[in-house]
Amino acid sequence: MPLLERSAWYDIARDTNWTPKYVEVDELFPPDQSDPYGIPVAEWETFDEPYKVSYREYVSVQREKDAGAYSVKAALARSSYYEDADPAYLSMLKLHYGAIALSEYAACQSDARMTRFSKAPGMRNMATFGMLDELRHGQIQLYFPHQLVSLDRQFDWAHQAHHSKNWAAIAGRHALDDVMMTRDAVTTSVMLNFAFETGLTNIQMIGLSADAANMGDFTFSNLITSIQSDEARHAQIGTPVLEIMVRNGRKAEAQQAVDIAFWRIHRIFAILTGIPMDYWIPLEKRDRSFKEYMTEFVGEQFERQLLDLGLERPWYWDIFLEDVETHHHCQAAATWAWRNTLWWNPTGNVGPRERAWLEEKYPGWNDTFGMYWDVMIENIRAGHPEKSEAVGMPAMCNMCQIPISNKGGTVWQARAYQLEYEGRLYSFCSTVCKWIFELEPSRYKTFNTIADRMYNGEISPNTPENILQYMGSGVISQGGRDAHDLAWVRAYDEPGATPRLVAGS
Amino acid sequence: MSSLAVIGRLEKDAHTRIIDVDTDFTMDQVVEACLAPAVGYQARHPKPGAMLRVRPTTDTDDADPFPRSMTVAEARLRHFQQIDIYVSDD
Question: What Pfam families does its record include (chain B) (predicted)?
């Protein structure tokens, strides 16, 4: 029997829906799981997904994608690429896989919630494919690093990170739990599909892919562009959701959801992507700076999409633009100084040539972030590398779970924004994280940062050794060290190196 | 005597830091406690030779400093309260 062309049946099937007879609508679609905005079903039935695909087509296309990704991997596995690779580049992979692999499984659950609880049949249909996409992404991003565990135990964090209490994993989980794991289907779509996937994943999956290709790692480069091709489809779920919300008088709620999620994911991705792009990729292999990528993919493309939907730029847009030029630089230095807490080996890689590049891309870098590195480099050159490792603990943001840092050196911008709520003092990295908390304090108030846990008895005794063990450092694998064993500092011994590294200068 | 953790905000340091202090520490001792993990590790002394004072952090960075001999207990500093360690003209 010949099969029908998709066009002959798709529009009949894609919005199949019914009115329940044996249960109430609210029993089938509890508002707190489904739609708390009270939008009529007739409106949800107008959901029209930009990309249309049948299951038969999906299986066929995805099979080809997997065949491509796995065959490239198999072919390149015969080379000794990873054995010979720059250790800082391997750290980029460790950071990526540790942060992302199980996050994809989590996203599968988010799409499953949309599959079950969306009132829009077209959205249920698309979320089913999204669920399968994320399942694929979880599996493939565990399978690929699994080969590398025998090379370096730190790759085991691909599976272990999100089962650990490492501070960086906590930061990722807190953001993702907030944005995509604990909200109704509609809000999840706005936050995950639109703000997160449409707004920010390109920077990781396309920007980093270019750098990986420049490094000759076609296995990884091909993998993440293959993943992003799925993303480009299921991220589109969010756009018709927003159109329906705006049309039905829910623009303010839609805007708030975008504003919350965009900031939360930006704070994570700036570390995940910005640090490797601007510090770890060797100078001659860098495609563009993190700021340049963000300007194109976010500043231009995403902003345009927001405006096209009748939404506005988030209220904190100027703060965000400043943060793009600040946050990842602070954390590059901080994570390097506190590297024994990490599951990857960061490199400092801040030699004179790299500093000149950073100064060009981020004017003023040497008089702010550079002065932080000056002190650490001086210690190393004076024969005290141990003093380049931080002592004590930074204050941690009670929202994003990241150290509260900002520009220093010739300026003084680091500060915690504090709030007292029900007798407890909360600290935030920014007015934006504080604003998110204040929107719904009961949602966030009981959570404890690593810093809180050091003092509430959960990490006891709160010795450095015990804190590291609590976070899995030295347990799952050795904690981080400089990827190049400080070899990059020798660039300062070369004739003509910058003279600024004189004590007190 | 008991201990307390405050958030130290040292002038021109890139980090805010958790600083363990004793409740009978004077403000001068609090300054030393805040300098210890920062200066010579990632930060420089904000102005060598200058007097450093302690004040509660405010939005406008202009709170009066605590007297140098005042103790942490007398200042009623709270757990994780943020304090500035800054160069004083006094």
Answer: TmoB (PF06234)
Q: What is the dihedral of CA B35, B36, B42, B43, to 10 degrees?
A: 20
CA distance B8 to chain A (A): 9
Q: Give me the half-sphere count of Cα atoms (radius 13 Å) on the Cβ side of residue A436.
A: 26
Q: Please check whether residue A333 touches B, CB under 8 A.
A: yes
Contact A222, A118 (CB under 8 A): no
Domain B3-88 in this protein, CATH class = alpha beta
Name A23's Cβ contacts closer than 8 Å, sequence gap at least 6: none
Are the CB atoms for A264 and A179 separated by under 8 Å? yes
> With contacts defined as CB-CB under 8 Å, which chain B residues touch A350?
none
| Residue A25 located in a structural domain | no
Beta strands at B82-88 and B3-10: parallel, antiparallel or unpaired: parallel
Provide the domain limits for residue A440: 55-493
B81 inside 8 A of chain A by CB: yes
A416: which chain B residues are within 8 Å (Cβ-Cβ)?
7, 9, 16, 57, 82
* Helix (H/G/I), strand (E/B), else coil: B5: strand
The reply to whether A334 touches chain B by the CB within 8 Å rule is yes
pTM assigned to the model: 0.96
pLDDT tens-place string over residues B63-81: 999 999 999 999 999 999 9
Q: How far apart are CA A280 and CA A483, in angstroms?
A: 9
Give the tens place of pLDDT for each residue, A98-154: 999 999 999 999 999 999 999 999 999 999 999 999 999 999 999 999 999 999 999
**Is A242 inside any structural domain?**
yes
Within a domain: residue A271?
yes
Determine whether the interchain pair B42/A412 forms a contact, defined as Cβ–Cβ distance below 8 Å. no
- Domain total in chain A: 1
Q: Cβ B37–A409 below 8 Å, yes or no? A: no
d(CA A483, CA A14): 51
Per the domain annotation, does A10 fall within a domain?
no
Q: Which CATH number is A195's domain given? A: 1.10.620.20
Cβ-based neighbour number of residue A391 at 10 Å: 15
The type of residue at A9 is W
